[in-house]
Amino acid sequence: MTVPVYQNFIHGQFLANHSGEKFAVKNPATDEVIYEVEVADSHVQQAAIESAKAGFALWSAMAPIERSRVLHKAVSLLRERNNELAKIEVLDTGKPWQEAECVDIQTGADVIEYFAGLAPAQVGTQQPVGGDFFYTRKEPLGICAGIGAWNYPLQIACWKSGPALAAGNALIFKPSEETPLGAIKLAEIFIEAGVPAGVFNVVQGAAEVGQWLTTSPDIEKVSFTGEVGTGKKVMQSAASNLKEVTMELGGKSPLIVFEDADISQAISAAMLGNFYTQGEVCTNCTRVFVQRKVYDAFLAELKQRTEQNIIAGDPFDPNVNLGALISKQHHTLVMDYIAKGKAEGATVLTGGEALSPETAPNGYFVAPTVFIDCHDDMTIVKEEIFGPVMSVLVFDDEEEVIQRANNTHLGLAAGVFSKDIQRAHRVIHQLEAGICWINSYGNSPAEMPVGGYKQSGIGRENGIETLDQYTQTKSVYVGMSDIESPF
Ligand code: NAD
């Protein structure tokens, strides 16, 4: 069967590569190749840079309010095409339709809308110094690069392009090689909305193309979303011309459930933070600490709800709420972690096996898995698994749980469930994590900055401060009187 072949999207149109090299993309729920994509070879790469230079010249010269109008049009188009785009995300990622339909495109559009609104509000400062004065200008950086992960492909493309474009930059975006199509659709939408050609180019490929973006001397900044190990490599290459970097990396986040919490609510949070998007969410609370007095009650309800309420299968079935993992390779990795959990002495409360649902027998499914009898030094408790695998740990007091929650080199997110508001804030303030929730988990509105402490990241996405991270400050000193000079 022949499948469509997508080319790189450069300067408002598709551009053929010269090498002829391409790669296949599979639907994780069926194990079938759904399309192929051409790799960005040196011809495409050079074209992407030339085009971005031309795009940047036009875009950065436009008044911010004009850029804002254009971006708002793109937001409308994203919302109008929600279902068409959500379908692409389901086919590429294997996630349930019931999620993609109301989350992926909406949360992407929200962020572009938010930054489109802020674009005309960016102001410089003015300050008198003696009889002279200076003023500052917020200027765009130039050509930026975005490199995305595969779990929220279109949302990640929107989260990077929103602030980059609002601030007047051009962006060359490389989606993950597992999920390349959503970014192309976003590029088409930008062109239709009136964004000049070259302002948002899409290059395709795996690590090599990513490496080129991180070393290109014409690129001023890299915004990266992916694994900690890859992030370190990206930062190292970005040092070649001292590029600015934003790093949105992995996590092993704690959820702390105190005995006074609403236990059913805490279980909802733990399930959302481990099984939503089949566990492939960077902020997941994969270490759930439960205070001893409520431990048994917590486990009983968690087991019952996990076994009764989760439906795995064809992601397009609107009742399905657990999709397929991204690839066969990732499926193997997650199953290996589960095997390690068992081997190191953790007990499977529920799940712990691969699934082959009737409606999607060839998909890469893993049962929602809860491990108990866990210790802090087990591999499953220490390493990011990025699948539907929760470790539940028991604790006795506040001081102990804070120390254990912080005992990791990662610091992306954290959650606390307690009805004691003073305790909830006191504990959250001591947790070493950038994205925190009290009596909630996972919400990430456009207005709220997100990013990690420690090795989970550098810089932030969303929120007002992110716009600044796509600008540089120019100070202009103005002499109002004669220069005092000894010469
Ligand atoms: P990954 O690090 O394998 O790949 C991410 C991207 O980097 C891909 O586009 C890939 O092609 C590219 N890449 C690979 N090697 C590269 C190199 N040497 N130089 C430049 N680019 C390179 O990550 P993944 O498996 O796609 O995504 C899962 C990871 O992403 C998890 O660790 C997850 O926690 C993290 N993540 C973080 C956030 C966040 O906001 N903090 C969001 C989503 C995912």
UniProtKB/TrEMBL annotation:
Aldehyde dehydrogenase domain mapped to chain residues: 17-476
SUPFAM superfamilies (alphabetical): ALDH-like (SSF53720)
Keyword NAD attributed: yes
UniProt keyword annotations, A-Z: Metal-binding, NAD, Oxidation, Oxidoreductase, Potassium
Stored InterPro entries: Ald_DH/histidinol_DH (IPR016161), Ald_DH_C (IPR016163), Ald_DH_CS_CYS (IPR016160), Ald_DH_CS_GLU (IPR029510), Ald_DH_N (IPR016162), Aldehyde_DH_dom (IPR015590), BADH (IPR011264)
Residues forming the catalytic site: E248
MF terms in GO: betaine-aldehyde dehydrogenase (NAD+) activity; metal ion binding
Matches recorded under PROSITE patterns: ALDEHYDE_DEHYDR_CYS, ALDEHYDE_DEHYDR_GLU
EC number: 1.2.1.8
Residues annotated as transmembrane: none
Catalytic activity reported: betaine aldehyde + NAD(+) + H2O = glycine betaine + NADH + 2 H(+); betaine aldehyde + NADP(+) + H2O = glycine betaine + NADPH + 2 H(+)
Pfam families hit by this protein: Aldedh
GO terms (BP aspect): glycine betaine biosynthetic process from choline
Superkingdom per UniProt: Bacteria
Enzyme type, top EC level: oxidoreductase
Family: Belongs to the aldehyde dehydrogenase family.
Subunit structure as annotated in this protein's UniProt entry: Dimer of dimers.
PANTHER family: ALDEHYDE DEHYDROGENASE-RELATED
NCBIfam families referenced in this protein's UniProt entry, alphabetically: BADH, PRK13252.1
Protein name: Betaine-aldehyde dehydrogenase
Organism: Pseudoalteromonas maricaloris
Phylogenetic lineage: Bacteria, Pseudomonadati, Pseudomonadota, Gammaproteobacteria, Alteromonadales
